[in-house]
Amino acid sequence: MKDKPVTNPLADQAGFYREFAPPIALRGHFQCVWINRAAATSGGPVDVVPDGCVDLVWRDERVLVAGPDITVARPVLAAGSIVLGARFRAGAAARWLGLPMSELVGRSVDLADIWSARRLRDVVEPIADTVSTGQRARSLLDGIRALSPPDGSPDPVAERMFAWLGEGLGAAEPVSVLRERLDISERTLLRRSREHFGYGPKMLDRILRFQRFQAMARRSPPMSLAALATEAGFADQAHLNREVQSLCVMSAGAFLRQLSR
Fold first, then answer.
1. Contact present, 234 and 205 (Cβ < 8 Å)
2. Closest by alpha carbon to 157, among 90, 94, 65?
3. Could you read off the pLDDT of 147-186 as tens digits, one per residue?
């Protein structure tokens, strides 16, 4: 008899989660900053689903880089713990960090393993000295601003790829459409996609289609799975189920039940 897949609470459904616009000085590099406070009465693993993005994360007294995922990530949060994050704009992380995102797929890496610990000392120590969540967030953002490279604007090709695939190209072969719109070779397209997203454009298309499904599923009034599959750009409900199972290790129905908790 097959074991039933393990499912955990979605990270943004477990405790308190909010996203905010980044300070003006960081908007060239980051799309949002966020806070996640685990429930005071319970802790444990939470599910973070793929979104095509890369985040800087303050957790367990460390600054981590949460690389791009191709399936659910399962960090463990202590009861009542606070996690702070800053999400890079599409195409910004590789330039900011100084390495291709293909090296970080499915990984959460201490920023000190990418940069020197000495370079991070002025960021980490002030955060550790704060008391309130607000002070911690301000200190983290001040540190990120101090570390930001002078020329870290997102790669324009990567930005357009993310935006177009996020909207849904409505094509069976998104790579061909991207090549035509961007006027670049398939090899260049693949190289740029791996550099900035960690994987090729077909994988990015799958993840952003799932993200469209998730955004639609959160709206009210609720839609049926068949209607969601059509609206989000899946071939049919069976296709939707296969993709959610692959990306999230749960059925589409189980995912919807998570959102309704």
1. no
2. 90
3. 888 776 899 999 999 999 999 987 678 889 999 999 999 9
